[in-house]
Amino acid sequence: MNTQWIELYRDELVERYPVLRPLADGFFEAARILIEAYIGGKKLLVCGNGGSAADADHIVGELMKSFVIPRPLPEELKRKIREADPETGDHIAESLQRGYSAIALTQHNALISAFSNDEDPSLVYAQQTAGYGRPGDVFLGITTSGNSGNVIAAAVTGRAVGLTIIGLTGEGGGRLKKYCDVCLAVPAKETYKVQELHLPLYHCLCLAVEKTLVERESV
Questions:
Q1: Distance spanning both ends of the chain, measured CA to CA
Q2: What distance in Å separates the CA atoms of residue 20 and residue 26, rounded to the nearest whole number?
Q3: What was the pLDDT predicted at 70?
Q4: What structural domains and CATH numbers belong to the chain?
Q5: Distance from the CA of 122 to the CA of which of 47, 130, 175, 181 falls in 20 to 30 A?
Q6: Pairwise CA distance, residues 99 & 82, whole Å
Q7: What's the pTM value of the predicted model, to 2 decimals?
Q8: What mean pLDDT, rounded, does the chain reach?
Q9: CB under 8 Å to 179, separation ≥6 — which residues?
Q10: What is residue 71's predicted lDDT score, i.e. its pLDDT?
């Protein structure tokens, strides 16, 4: 795998946010994990609470459609869409974009409310991880304290299923850290300050993923 884009966005990240320099190696490893998972046809599961839930949805938005560069569908898929409906197929084929499979566990209201009503509400992300997760997938748990019980339960479940676990936390990593293959623990403790540092981290991760995969797909 060509790592030039991981290195470029890692270097840009620590240049713009010097406080994140200690996370440079972790960033590289997290990006490598995500890219290799996507190359292997796997997916990302991501979750958090409150502002971190919004971050989870934000990450999915950057991965499931074009972020900063065009991601046209493969020509073979375009052809099949046109054949499926000659009248509308061309518009559909040219409008859709290549997506990198990512699911925000925060967005499934009927499932979340049903499970929370019937079972332990703190296990709803774990339930989704057990249902969606397959060996080789990646789980990204976002918790500013590192101690969110529902995120930790999902990480534990993910490890059992065979997912690679990435944590995005505040200083120290909290209890989540011990379940992570990579824990990106930003050097801040107050929730809003942690969240302010999470955004450039996951933006640069998404940029590294997109640039690497688009370049690979265009060869």
A1: 13
A2: 10
A3: 95
A4: 4-64+99-218 (3.40.50.10490), 71-98 (no CATH)
A5: 181
A6: 19
A7: 0.96
A8: 97
A9: 152, 155, 156, 159, 165, 167
A10: 96
| Amino acid in the structure at residue 176 | L
Phi/psi at 15 (nearest 5 deg)?
-70, -40
174-204: pLDDT as tens digits: 999 999 999 999 999 999 999 999 999 999 9
- pLDDT (tens digit, 9 = 90+) per residue, 87-107? 999 999 999 999 999 999 999
Q: Give mean pLDDT, residues 31-40.
A: 98
Give CA–CA dist 122/151, Å, rounded: 8
Q: Quick one: DSSP state of residue 2? A: -
> By the 8 A CB rule, do 71 and 210 touch?
yes
What are phi and psi for residue 216, nearest 5 degrees? -65, -40
Instruction: Using CB atoms within 10 Å of the CB of residue 27, give its burial: 0 to 12 exposed, 13 to 18 middle, 19+ buried.
Output: buried
Distance CA 168, CA 107 (A): 19
Report the distance separating Cα 151 and Cα 178, nearest Å: 13
Distance between CA atoms of 5 and 176, rounded to whole angstroms? 28
Rounded Cα–Cα distance for residues 208 and 63 (Å): 11
Helices 191-218 & 24-39 angle (0-180, nearest 10): 40
Alpha helices in the chain (DSSP H): 4-16, 24-39, 51-63, 75-84, 89-95, 109-118, 124-132, 149-161, 191-218
